[in-house]
């Protein structure tokens, strides 16, 4: 006889952080309880958020090369909106954040790839870019990402519960549950939210910029150590714990403390492709950009293949369970609890086949049948990789661009091997189209995976969330083409004085490099070897290590600090932080820390998106492409006394750590 669901709780249970079978976890809203979820007001609010977050992140990503995950800001805004309306369930709140965050993920995938078309167009007028082409590629890629994630849900979300921490998905659940439960939990969460928001306003380079939030120390031989000391990275580190944080930092430390000095000393005054200047004249950041990105791309691609091979048995089983729905067997939706019902596999397979046919036949994606097949195969592969990566480190640090580079490398090589490379613009555009769809599908799948984890914890209905993800994808796809065209005409995408589009510029270099036989393969192969040694010699998860190699050490340092704080909390209040969850006191302190960290992530991410949106609106009104400088009131003194600005930034981050530690360890009222 199956266990009876308990009544709704006042917060997430300790089992939300423990390694137990997903079938034994009892969500905040029991499966037996039916609340309003997929309602008109939730859909309308979510669609509006998808459009707004997509546009804001498109501008932000093209300008600085980074996007801000919208899952937590969307959750916070949904909680606030429904509190103002004084009506709305926690499942409606979850639906709003599900739809709203999908827009940001599609925008991220688009701006990492498709702006390469604008870059090529300046030197080759035969390359035509239009709004419909961008929107259709964005929509098809995003839908493929959502669809391919559906058969993986039972494995990644349920079976791997506790093994994959899903920091942002867990934080979203804490936000929603605290908003619904109220009391001390809500106060703790919103205290963290206020601190994260205040810190972001004061420290963000595009905010007031009162101190240097990214201090670094230059070491001999161009080695470098430093940190982007932000609330969201500290919070992510605290949530994911010490092991994953340490492995990621190890990869980044190897890149910045060993490989960059080695490359610099090896080359000396020589000029090594792809850089066009002597190695001795390049900074640490330039060496990372020119060479370590390729090493990281090779490592991420190889680690992804290893992860996929190791996961094949469980993936096959997940697909087999889904196929039971097609055959109408015991795996059908009718025999499952509400919280375990996915969209029917027959519908998933039919839509995926339709998407593949559209990519092949629609002239706006200039690929032949081989290109259509590659899109489907690569998309499924990188959807699997992306969905697992966000379970480890969250969506904000998901190296989608690294996966896209790997997909472009493989596609370009296949084109060359089959003699399809005619050296013309059509070949470049076809290869980019494959990479763009793969990139967008990987970004959308990462967001879908994170959102489904949130739904798993709070007790949402997966099938309704999957429909919501598709609505968010389509809402952003319809508008993102217009956004890119307007930004290109206003500022110039890929220009020195406009929007730099760093990822898209790198994608164009990769495609040109392979098709013209000028890619630095040696650096790519170094990354492959690093991933293999990590996985099979040191027996460590190569994917987490590869992500550390690919991303700057400045991102990994605060994540490591957060992980070490979690370790210190475990040592103080319990003997271990394993699957048993430690003692009741440890579980209580851990929950307090995660709640406060979730609030810090939410506040910082929300203000980051608002700053990006404000910059965009001010720039549109004033016509000033450098409108971001309007807010940087602290930059004058930082430029005058850089050492002091870095010291102040370090002290401010130390104060942030102290606030998190105090929130986690203090005694709370019942």
List strands and helices in order, with pairings:
Elements (H helix, E strand, L loop, with lengths): L39 H25 L6 H15 L4 H22 L3 H9 L7 H19 L3 H7 L7 H15 L1 H21 L12 E3 L5 E3 L4 H10 L1 H26 L16 H44 L17 H17 L7 H25 L6 H18 L7 H34 L3 H29 L11 H14 L5 H16 L5 H9 L2 H21 L10 H39 L12 H6 L1 H24 L5
Antiparallel strand pairs: 1-2
Shape: globular
pLDDT average, as an integer? Answer: 79
| Strand ordering within the main sheet | 1-2
List the helices and strands in order: HHHHHHHHEEHHHHHHHHHHHHHHH
Structural category is: mainly alpha
Low-confidence stretches: 1-8, 329-333, 576-582
Question: Can you tell me about this structure?
Answer:
The protein has helices at 40-64, 71-85, 90-111, 115-123, 131-149, 153-159, 167-181, 183-203, 231-240, 242-267, 284-327, 345-361, 369-393, 400-417, 425-458, 462-490, 502-515, 521-536, 542-550, 553-573, 584-622, 635-640, 642-665; strands spanning 216-218, 224-226. Mean pLDDT is 79; it is low at 1-8, 329-333 and 576-582. 69% of the residues lie in helices and 1% in strands. The protein has one domain (37-209, 247-552, 600-627). It is mainly alpha-helical. It has a two-stranded antiparallel sheet.
Provide tags for this entry.
1% strand, 670 residues, 69% helix
Produce a short descriptive summary.
With about 675 residues, the chain is mainly α. It contains 23 helices and two strands.
């Amino acid at each position: 006889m199956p266990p009876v669901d308990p009544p709704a709780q006042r917060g997430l249970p300790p089992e939300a952080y423990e390694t137990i079978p997903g079938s034994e976890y009892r969500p905040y809203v029991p499966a037996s309880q039916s609340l309003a979820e997929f309602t008109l007001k939730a859909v309308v609010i979510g669609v509006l958020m998808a459009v707004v977050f997509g546009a804001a992140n498109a501008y932000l990503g093209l300008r600085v090369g980074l996007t801000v995950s919208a899952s937590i800001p969307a959750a916070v805004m949904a909680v606030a909106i429904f509190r103002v309306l004084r009506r709305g369930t926690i499942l409606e709140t979850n639906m709003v954040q599900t739809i709203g965050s999908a827009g940001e993920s599609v925008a991220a995938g688009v701006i990492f790839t498709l702006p390469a078309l604008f870059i090529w167009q300046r030197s080759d007028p035969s390359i035509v870019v239009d709004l419909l082409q961008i929107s259709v590629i964005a929509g098809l890629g995003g839908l493929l990402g959502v669809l391919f994630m559906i058969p993986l849900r039972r494995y990644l979300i349920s079976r791997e519960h506790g093994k994959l921490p899903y920091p942002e998905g867990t934080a979203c659940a804490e936000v929603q549950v605290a908003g619904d439960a109220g009391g001390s939990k809500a106060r703790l969460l919103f205290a963290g939210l206020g601190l994260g928001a205040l810190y972001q306003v004061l420290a963000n380079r595009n905010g007031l910029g009162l101190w240097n939030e990214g201090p670094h120390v230059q070491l001999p031989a161009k080695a470098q150590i430093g940190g982007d000391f932000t609330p969201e990275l500290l919070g992510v580190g605290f949530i994911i714990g010490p092991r994953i944080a340490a492995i990621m930092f190890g990869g980044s430390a190897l890149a910045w403390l060993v490989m960059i000095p080695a490359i610099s000393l090896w080359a000396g005054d020589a000029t090594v492709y792809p850089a066009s200047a002597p190695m001795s004249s390049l900074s640490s950041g330039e060496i990372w950009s020119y060479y370590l990105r390729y090493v990281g791309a090779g490592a991420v691609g190889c680690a992804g293949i290893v992860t996929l091979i190791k996961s094949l048995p469980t993936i096959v089983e997940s697909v087999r369970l889904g196929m039971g729905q097609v055959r109408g067997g015991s795996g059908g939706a009718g025999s499952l609890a509400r919280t375990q019902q996915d969209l029917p596999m027959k519908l998933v397979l039919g839509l995926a086949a339709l998407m593949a046919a559209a990519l092949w036949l629609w002239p706006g994606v200039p690929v032949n049948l081989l290109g259509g097949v590659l899109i489907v195969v690569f998309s499924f592969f990188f959807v699997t990789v992306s969905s697992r990566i966000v379970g480890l480190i969250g969506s904000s640090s998901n190296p989608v661009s690294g996966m896209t580079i790997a997909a472009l490398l493989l596609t370009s090589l296949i084109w060359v091997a089959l003699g399809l490379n005619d050296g013309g613009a059509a070949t470049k555009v076809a290869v980019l189209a494959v990479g763009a769809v793969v990139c967008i599908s990987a970004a959308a799948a990462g967001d879908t995976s994170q959102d489904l984890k949130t739904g798993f914890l709070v007790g949402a209905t997966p099938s309704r969330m999957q429909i919501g993800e598709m609505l968010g994808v389509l809402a952003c796809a319809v508008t993102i083409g217009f956004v890119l065209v307007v930004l290109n005409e206003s500022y110039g995408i890929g220009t020195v004085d406009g929007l730099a589009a760093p990822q898209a510029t790198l994608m164009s270099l990769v495609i040109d490099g392979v098709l013209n036989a000028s890619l630095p393969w040696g650096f790519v192969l170094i990354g492959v070897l690093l991933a293999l040694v990590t996985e099979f010699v040191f027996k460590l998860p190569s994917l987490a290590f590869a992500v550390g190699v690919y991303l700057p050490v400045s991102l990994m340092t605060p994540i490591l600090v957060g992980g070490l704080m979690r370790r210190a909390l475990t040592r103080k209040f319990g003997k271990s932080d394993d699957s048993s969850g430690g003692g009741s006191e440890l579980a209580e302190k851990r929950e307090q820390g995660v709640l406060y960290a979730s609030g810090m992530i939410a506040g910082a991410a929300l203000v980051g998106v608002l700053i990006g949106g404000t910059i965009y609106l001010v720039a549109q009104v004033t016509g000033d492409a450098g409108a971001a400088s309007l807010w940087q009131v602290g930059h004058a003194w930082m430029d005058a006394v850089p050492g002091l600005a870095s010291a102040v930034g370090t002290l401010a981050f130390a104060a942030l750590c102290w606030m998190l530690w105090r929130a986690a360890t203090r005694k709370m009222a019942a």
